[in-house]
Design brief:
The chain has 165 residues and is of the alpha+beta class. The protein has 6 helices and 5 strands. Helix 4 packs across helix 6.
Amino acid sequence: MNKQPLWAPWRIEYIVGEKEKGCIFCNRIKQKEDEKNLILYRAEFSFIIMNRYPYNSGHLMIVPYEHKGDYEDLNDNEILEMGKLIKLSIKVLREVMNPEAFNIGLNLGKPAGAGVEEHLHYHVVPRWNGDTNFMPVISNTRVIPEALSSTYKKLKKAFLKYEKS
């Protein structure tokens, strides 16, 4: 069998890098460096950001600006807008990446799978038939076929069409 290396150079930053102080979402939104921080869309109460360590290509997160870890702390404006941004994310991902399905979820608390439990966020993950293969099962590794910067540019261009709507 001809073994090919798995190349995922962006992961090394996370593995060996110094862990960030404070909330990653609050830090990103304050920096006003959207491309560097993979922020695709800013709305009034929440924003859309790409997951830097994605489950699949095009893995997006919908995040309220306010630092809240409990769904019950969200106000009606935040809930409504986040729902609209999930809908917009699905629309844009369909246009740009043509997924066959989606996983959409909100993990509240560490036992539920929250990686950043202090600042809640929805995940919107595009899915394709065959995107689950032996790699996650055998080696706990995911293969992301496109660089984050390339995906960002394509998605950002699509989201720009909806900013003024």
